[in-house]
From TrEMBL:
Database matches in InterPro entries: Ala_racemase_N, PLP-binding_barrel, PyrdxlP_homeostasis
NCBIfam families: YggS family pyridoxal phosphate-dependent enzyme
CDD domains in UniProt: PLPDE_III_YBL036c_like
Organism: Orenia marismortui
Keyword NADP: no
Entry cofactors: pyridoxal 5'-phosphate
PROSITE patterns linked: UPF0001
Pfam families: Ala_racemase_N
Family, as annotated: Belongs to the pyridoxal phosphate-binding protein YggS/PROSC family.
Name recorded for this polypeptide: Pyridoxal phosphate homeostasis protein
Residue list for modification N6-(pyridoxal phosphate)lysine: K36
Keyword Metal-binding belongs to the record: no
Free-text function comment from the UniProt entry: Pyridoxal 5'-phosphate (PLP)-binding protein, which is involved in PLP homeostasis.
Length: 233
């Protein structure tokens, strides 16, 4: 478990240095450990280190882990979300943010289930900035129209945008995808859509977090850089 503490320290050090170079306040940037396929014991090391938010990409795993931690822990859903699984997240009032909303149908289901639970669900709009047909997310050119439609839903609150950049050994190659997301956020802000905020940009992972910070990321999704290799069952 000391390996986890050491990796966490190195990631935090990288974030601090990158924020300083970019002239950003470190308080603007959240490190979100991605705990998919990692044990409760590993997660408790992170929790003891002062981080109380985790990201999961599978609803079943999130709900299984939910009751193992106290009410201080907050959960993020970062993976592709099927409409028939939304009800499980709505019931978990510690599910604080869904990163992966890319359609009006999904947003309407989240709104319906959140209304049943008498809560407002915070969401991010997932944007496919690479325009890769094999990836989830709405294309940038269609995003503003979708945001306008979702903004009318009473039990959903748009807090920002998310993207998953193509993997590259050279982080500079993914910079354009992060920049595109930031530019889209600025466009949305300029329009001024009611019930919509652009406070959060969820982008950047272990390999490219420095570039993401330079381009405006507020949430960094880091898995292997903290936990090591996944424990596939």
């Amino acid at each position: 478990m000391q390996d986890i503490q050491s990796r966490l320290y190195k990631i935090e050090e990288r974030i601090e240095k990158a924020a300083k170079r970019a002239g950003r306040n470190i308080s603007e940037i959240k490190l979100l450990p991605i705990s998919k396929y990692h044990s409760l014991e590993k997660m408790k090391v992170i929790l003891d280190g002062g981080i109380n938010e985790f990201g999961e990409s599978r609803v079943q795993e999130l709900t299984d882990k939910y009751d193992e931690f106290d009410s201080e822990v907050r959960w993020h859903m970062i993976g592709h979300l099927q409409r028939n699984k939304v009800k499980y997240l709505a019931r978990r009032h510690r599910c604080t943010l869904i990163h992966s909303v890319d359609s009006l149908r999904l947003a309407k289901e989240i709104n319906k289930r959140s209304k049943q639970e008498d809560r407002v669900m915070n969401i991010l709009i997932q944007v496919n900035t690479a325009e890769d047909d094999n990836k989830f997310g709405i294309y940038s050119k269609e995003a503003i129209e979708l945001i306008k439609k979702i903004s009318k839903l009473e039990y959903v609150k748009i807090k920002g945008l998310m993207t998953i950049a193509p993997y590259s050994d050279d982080p500079e190659e993914v910079r354009p995808y992060f920049r595109k997301l930031k530019e889209l956020a600025l466009k949305v802000e300029a329009i001024g859509i009611e019930n919509v905020e652009m406070d959060e940009l969820s982008m950047g992972m272990t390999n490219d977090l420095e570039v993401a910070i330079e381009e405006g990321a507020t949430i960094l999704r880091v898995g292997s850089g903290i936990f090591g290799e996944r424990e596939y069952k």
